[in-house]
Design a protein that fits this description.
By secondary structure, the chain is α+β, with helices and mostly antiparallel strands. Helices cover 35% and strands 17% of the residues. The chain crosses the membrane at residues 34-52.
Length: 536
């Protein structure tokens, strides 16, 4: 927040000569503006950073600029007019965590592995409902606390998961209090180590792996294959090396193990639908409330507050006007450094890429849109008057660096924005049609890319089409044109986010979420797609 204030102050302390020149120029432009139909177009890219960025308007009660608090209230009121999207979303039940571990156990047997090893993090959240912060609210520390999932074959031949833990002795009580879902409320099986012991050797000597040591007739210990452990992708390197140095064989994720989390349960699908539909609806609710003079950060704060108001957690949200949208992930903190005096046109595109969490699941959407032109000139004048005179030297939209977005743009640029908007939507439709079981991950990317290339903008589609989504915004499988080995399967959920980024001009991205079905077309999990530049 401090940094933002500084940036804000810097934006308003230009040398007087610059201000005078700008004022004169802006007066002419304002006259010109009032005689034209004012079509404001906006492209937003929003990244939700952190809860800390939340409450937006307290520092904005200054004479300059629009009434952000009013915009804020308008967005929240619109958003709250229909919150039925939240209804089908319920927290994941304890049984589902056990089922996930059983599915993992079967994948481990298929992969010829003795145990899966993971630390608190996203994967632990998936299998045991504990995130990294749940375990260590302070910071990740050096003492390993591990979950181990070991396949067990029952007499019936059924494979189920045995879950065990490795924890420092003094933390044992805290581990039991975490409430990790376990079978029939059974005691957790925890291997403990003292502070002066080697945790990995303790694990090797524990009951979990001891039975692997067979004894020869003559009493000599047999040579046996070392226990084989599959390392979760998030496990820290010193732990993997510690296990290997103690004699465990360590291997990476197998496709079978990855598939467990890639295929979403009906409960997960409803959570993804709720958080992604809600995030889109928040953008849609906010758009008609936007008024000239808002900065990128103010628009982001308005959206963040709307998302927080329904219990969503924020994690990465950014709003970008015009050519700032030509960087797919923005540049976030760099633009304020250098004033850019370019011409920005009165059809600024706004890219808006907000992300949120709800009950542990992630949204990842993007909307590129224009804001509505004023309904009639008189109401426009009223609105303009309401924030004069400060607005005189300002603009319809202000960047965070204070630069103007309202000088007239060429009709060619305006036409190109509309054209590109349509091409990206067409590319998104082509990809949506390719989300079929047994199609390759590459095929979906290629479907969208072909449309964009044929329209002559292949150079502007600089990233992959999308990725899996679940607890994390970015999960495997990844949709890029090289990933020909991975086949789509029913229950997988993906982002579909083609974009065209034209450096120095603007960028357009449309991003929605899809569920691959048993047969037929993929199901949209974002309520509805954008239908036009004025209807995101
Ligand atoms: C999972 O953890 C959350 C808190 O992080 C808790 O509210 C919820 O009840 C837990 N779920 C189960 C099934 O224990
Ligand atoms: C996908 O491929 C699998 C394995 O070849 C097959 O059993 C299944 O029927 C296919 N599904 C569809 C929808 O084509």
């Amino acid at each position: 927040m401090e940094f933002e204030k500084l940036q804000h102050a810097a934006a308003h302390s230009q040398p007087p000569d610059v201000s005078m020149a700008k004022l004169t120029k802006d007066r002419q432009q304002t006259t010109h503006r009032l005689t034209r139909a004012l079509l404001l177009s906006v492209v937003f890219l929003t990244f939700i950073w952190a809860l800390g960025n939340g409450v937006p308007f307290s520092s904005q009660q200054q004479s300059k600029g629009p009434d952000v608090a009013k915009v804020q209230q308008c967005a929240i009121d619109n958003f709250h007019s229909d919150l039925s999207f939240l209804d089908p979303a319920v927290p994941i039940k304890a049984d589902e965590f056990l089922e996930r571990r059983d599915r993992l156990a079967r994948a481990l047997v298929a992969s010829g592995v003795d145990a899966f090893v993971l630390e608190p993090g996203y994967t632990f959240q998936y299998y045991g409902n504990i995130s990294q912060v749940d375990w260590e609210p302070w910071e990740p520390e050096e003492r390993p606390f591990l979950m181990l999932v070991l396949p067990q074959t029952l007499e019936t031949g059924e494979v189920v998961a045995k879950t065990a833990f490795l924890a420092p002795h003094f933390e044992e009580g805290r581990v039991r209090m975490l409430g990790i879902p376990s079978r029939d409320g059974a005691e957790l099986d925890i291997v403990v180590w003292e502070e002066h012991w080697d945790p990995y050797a303790t694990l090797m000597e524990s009951h979990l792996f001891k039975q692997k040591k067979t004894t020869k007739e003559d009493g000599e210990e047999a040579t046996h294959a070392p226990p084989k452990l599959m390392m979760d992708e998030e496990i820290r390197d010193f732990i993997a090396r510690g296990l290997a140095a103690t004699g465990f064989e360590t291997v990476g994720l197998s496709p079978e193990a990855e598939l467990v989390r890639q295929i979403k349960s009906p409960a997960e699908v409803e959570l993804l639908r709720a958080v992604n539909t809600g995030t889109v609806m928040a953008v849609r609710a906010m758009r008609p409330c936007l008024v000239p003079g808002l900065t990128e950060d103010e628009v982001r704060d308005v959206l963040d507050a709307a998302l927080l108001s329904v219990g969503f957690g924020l994690f990465f949200d950014i709003v970008l006007f015009e050519e700032h949208g030509a960087l797919p992930h923005g540049g976030v903190r760099y633009w304020g450094d250098e004033a850019d005096g370019g011409e920005h046109g009165d059809n600024p595109i706004v890219d808006h890429l907000p992300r949120a969490h709800y009950l542990g699941y992630s949204s990842d959407i993007c909307r590129s849109f224009f804001i509505d032109p004023p309904k009639q000139q008189s109401s426009w004048l009223d609105r303009l008057n309401s924030f004069l005179p400060s607005c005189m030297g300002s603009s319809l939209f202000r960047r965070n660096d204070g630069t103007d977005l309202s000088s007239s743009s060429s009709p060619e640029l305006r036409a190109e924005k509309f054209k590109v908007w349509d091409i990206v939507l067409e590319a998104q439709s082509a990809a949506a049609a390719a989300f079929m079981p047994n199609h390759t991950a590459a095929g979906v990317d290629i479907a969208a890319r072909t449309i964009i290339e044929e329209a002559g903008y292949g150079y502007g589609f600089t990233h992959r089409l999308g990725h899996g989504i679940g607890i994390k915004a970015h999960e495997s499988p990844y949709l890029n044109k090289w990933n020909k080995k991975v086949l789509l399967q029913p229950g997988m959920t993906f982002t579909n986010e083609p974009g065209i980024y034209l450096e120095g001009k603007f960028g357009v991205r449309h991003e929605d979420i899809y569920l691959v079905k048993e047969e037929g077309e993929a199901e949209l999990l974002t309520g509805r797609r954008a239908t036009g530049p004025y209807d995101p």
